[in-house]
Amino acid sequence: MSKRIQPTWSPPSSDEKRPKLKLFNSLTRQKEEFVCSRGNCVNWYSCGPTVYDASHMGHARSYISFDILRRVMSSYFGYDILYVMNITDIDDKIIKRARQNYLYEKYVKENRTLNDIIDDATAVVNFYEGVVKQTVDPDKKNTMQKMLDSVASAVKTLKAAVEENNSDKITSSKFEMLKLAKDPISEWLDSKYGSTISDNAIFSKLPRYWENEFHKDMKALNVSPLLNSK
């Protein structure tokens, strides 16, 4: 296969005297002197998070790295930077997570009988065993198996508390089982009732919450303020 030929690069010109900044040009595949096409203004677009869960250290590293580069360009090289970052607030991951959260919270609030909860928990364990078996990634499969073992153990503890008719143990073991089994229960409920969920408010609640948490994290990390694009 012949090597792709890149189009000709026609760089902007400038007579301004400033420290020279060189960046790798993906068009020419070499370092080029950076020259603004509009005076001193730099428009910078950056991909941002998909807000369906908490930010982690990988996010922190990325946004701090970009912020360092941005500060260097602004404070040392003197450019006026308009920095815009996309935040994805609707996609398949968000839709699925929002749907599962809604179904789980609804299930917990319904105050089902102990027999129903135990029957459901047994069905959840059987369902999740199938999910684990179908998982190919070894690390993910190992994590899911550990979760499954914890849930199965919690179900046994709840059954034992019911047989003892110990109200305190029943309350605590029921709470512990529902907490440990949140992800498997959510997956199970979604497989049964997910297609019935269509309220847009359910799908907007989750990203609004995690977007707000993301901005709190960025402020705590002292990342420069952002302009958001959705």
TrEMBL record:
InterPro entries: Cys-tRNA/MSH_ligase, Rossmann-like_a/b/a_fold, tRNA-synt_1_cat_dom. Keywords: ATP-binding, Ligase, Nucleotide-binding. GO terms for biological process: cysteinyl-tRNA aminoacylation. Transmembrane segments: none annotated. GO terms for molecular function: ATP binding; cysteine-tRNA ligase activity. SUPFAM superfamilies: Nucleotidylyl transferase (SSF52374). One of its GO terms (cellular component) is cytoplasm. Residues 37-225 form the tRNA synthetases class I catalytic domain. This is tRNA synthetases class I catalytic domain-containing protein.
